[in-house]
């Protein structure tokens, strides 16, 4: 007889990295004083791993909106949206998001992960779901929930995507899934190539805009607006945990599609509704995003500075103005050692190893935000310079 718990054993490498003192995960933050800093174990570090790109999680207007909603409506929703958890606040947020994104309808979910899981309602075992090799785990899990098979095309490779579309059963529905800005690298999807192939093969396009809404495009509507191809995207998902500075997510698209998902997407139907404080915070954040475009301009300028300086040092960084700056390392243990060197230097980054990235492509992800000061950006670059030389990366 096999014990179902027998699989619950961490690999030996876990113990090794713990013993070496380079384990980078589950570091508890004691305080968030703001201004791009965190306190961990009594030490103040530059927060260079957060996806709070616009610095809105600590913005007084966003915080006060959440507090006021908690006082008026409580801290929880008390049920799913379908049953008894819907609030006028949810509907106001959906209406405002639909107007902002220029989409016919929006469905707000309790988390960004759930927004993408809800896409399972659009998929079935006979459908051809074709996704970029680097799409987020929640898009992969959506296909599993639907019982669909996900075929992966090489990252931003339209020729490979075309071959997969041509190989699909002509009787099957076709759905192309991609991220707008990829979370691991900051690269943008090849939406022009995707749009052309989608038209030629009668495929629908879903874009996960978790990391680009609020940042890209003249109006902050994301990668599709940046490319001038908003109409090429049939369904757009987003999370409030990045540029909006809170928790929650949303699916935006045609009215009939959103109405269908409201009733048939299991992650929507069977999950408690977004809490009042988070819904109010998202509404307040949306107002700031709309009224203060200079915030995203500041983020892009800071990202261009950091990525350019790291590239000039000799790191294999692609210089650009995307707030996600990927510093390739390759080896997992070397990645952990670099993370530890940066941590000791007072810079808190994110170490990414498989399955978050492909095998052999471990990297340090730096996230630049509107909250970072010039001095903090200098500290990030200087910490990489010192650590890179010490570890022989430069």
TrEMBL record:
Tell me where in this chain the Aminotransferase class I/classII large domain is found: 49-384
From which residue to which does any coiled coil extend?
Answer: none
The enzyme's main class, written as a single word, is transferase
Needed cofactors, names only, are:
pyridoxal 5'-phosphate
What EC number(s) has UniProt assigned to this enzyme? 2.3.1.47
The record's annotation in InterPro entries points to: Aminotrans_II_pyridoxalP_BS, Aminotransferase_I/II_large, AON_synthase_class-II, PyrdxlP-dep_Trfase, PyrdxlP-dep_Trfase_major, PyrdxlP-dep_Trfase_small
Pfam families in the record: Aminotran_1_2
What keywords appear on the UniProt entry? Aminotransferase, Pyridoxal phosphate, Transferase
Q: Which GO terms describe its molecular function?
A: transaminase activity
- Catalysed transformations (reactions): 6-carboxyhexanoyl-[ACP] + L-alanine + H(+) = (8S)-8-amino-7-oxononanoate + holo-[ACP] + CO2
Q: Which family does it belong to?
A: Belongs to the class-II pyridoxal-phosphate-dependent aminotransferase family.
Q: What is the name attached to this protein's record?
A: 8-amino-7-oxononanoate synthase
Identify the species of origin: Actinomadura luzonensis
